[in-house]
Design goal:
The chain has helices at about 10-30, 35-50, 55, 65-70, 75-90, 95-105, 105-120, 145-160, 170-185, 190-210, 215-230, 235-240, 255-260, 265-270, 280-285, 290-305, 310, 320-345, 355-375, 380-385. By secondary structure, it is mostly helical. The protein is elongated.
Length: about 400
């Protein structure tokens, strides 16, 4: 416990002693995640570079509510978590020798300092909302650049979409829920949410293409609510439409309940091979996509299919959480960045400079993540966990 300084002690000496104690504690807190000397060096460089700006981003107050609730700012701890997350992002699949060399490289140190400062300046949309301690110990993936930036983009999206009626807010809420599970190393449980997010996104894309079908979609949503939450029986109005369905060979009322609104899209009825299903929607969108859109939809389709095992409970424990970090990050990136652009377009708002910077850094960091994902292998995953051993689960 730190005591008040003795009047005979030089204030500068006392302040230095406090700083040394803080650094000692930080080394201990992060000893399993990063080299302690490297951590303190980068933290010192970040603080020196930012100076008094830090106190605008981490306002220090003596509010009793913060003392009682434990919601006060933890400047050094938060910065160290950003350093660890950003450094891990750049260290994936490196050998021990490559990692040592990287940490000694002054050019890399400057790069790391710059990227951590980027994250600090984003914290009003980012780490301001994070837990101070994980529910299940492990990699703090939410502090890795891509998830961190996606979280910030989600928070900004919800602000832009406040009061907006449509699928966009629901999609972003699902994305945020997935990131919150990632934050606490409940990665397997994020997949069903990502699966639902992708389904909502694909429906939103086809409705954007055919806005006159929104009323039909809303009608079928009301049928679904009544059937699942109220009477457990299919509404009479639904049965009447089902009996007049375009594809009589499809006899599943449940499938029609979710996708019967597609009957009102004439173009869909003549082209979609999976008719009343999310795959029908996906294939229809791919038929009408540009080359870039087609490639992206192919990625989404592959990732969506990977969610099935998690959604149905057959996949629970995974040997390499880093693989889940890759997959969840990719699903969220493809959806959240596009939804953010659509929200701007539909609300007729221009991108702020901060938003442009956020999108630029997200594209930069996702490019690194995507290359790492392409290089995934059992040997590389084993290498990563030899250098950064898993922490034991602890609640």
């Amino acid at each position: 416990m730190n005591r008040l300084p003795n009047p005979s002690i030089d204030p500068m000496t006392f302040a230095q002693k406090i700083a040394e104690e803080h650094n000692k504690t930080l080394r201990e807190l992060f000893k399993h995640k990063i080299n302690g000397s490297f951590l303190i060096k980068i933290k010192s460089m970040v603080c020196a570079r930012m100076g008094s700006e830090l106190f605008n981003l981490y306002p220090i107050s003596f509010d009793n509510r913060e003392v009682i609730t434990g919601t006060g700012e933890t400047l050094e701890y938060d910065i160290c978590r950003m350093i660890v997350g950003t450094h891990r992002h750049h260290s994936i699949f490196l050998s021990q020798e490559e990692l040592y060399a990287k940490q000694k490289d002054t050019q890399y140190q400057e790069q790391l300092v710059g990227e951590v400062i980027e994250k600090i300046r984003l914290r009003i949309w980012g780490s301001k909302y994070f837990r101070k301690q994980q529910l299940l110990l492990g990699d703090e993936f939410l502090y890795f650049p891509v998830p961190y930036e996606l979280f910030a983009l989600c928070i900004r999206s919800l602000s832009l979409a406040a009061g907006y009626e449509g699928l966009w807010p629901n999609i972003i809420s699902n994305a945020l829920a997935s990131l919150t599970l990632m934050e606490n190393n409940m990665l397997s449980h994020a997949y069903p949410l990502c699966r639902g997010m992708i389904e909502q996104y694909l429906k939103a894309l086809i409705l954007r293409k055919h806005p006159k079908s929104i009323n039909d979609y809303t009608l079928f949503c009301s049928f679904e609510i009544e059937q699942s939450c109220c009477s457990q029986e299919y509404p009479d109005a639904f049965i009447e439409l089902f009996n007049k369905r375009i594809l009589p060979s499809s006899t599943s009322k449940n499938a029609y309940l979710h996708f019967g609104w597609l009957d009102q899209i004439a173009d869909y009825n003549t082209k979609a091979p999976y008719r009343y299903s999310i795959y029908g929607v996906l294939e229809y969108l791919m038929m009408h996509a540009t080359d870039d859109q087609y490639e992206e939809l192919c990625h989404i389709k592959r990732l969506y299919q990977m969610c099935h095992g998690y959604a149905h409970g057959s996949t629970v424990n995974v040997k390499y959480p880093l693989l889940q970090y890759f997959e969840i990050s990719m699903m969220l990136y493809y959806v959240v960045t596009r939804v953010f652009a659509d929200i701007h377009r539909e609300t007729n708002t221009d991108l702020l400079d901060e938003e442009k910077s956020l999108l630029d850094m997200l594209d930069r960091d996702f490019s690194i993540l995507n290359k790492q994902y392409q290089n995934r292998s059992t040997n590389n995953f084993e290498l990563y966990y030899r250098i950064f051993p898993k922490l034991p689960p602890n609640t």
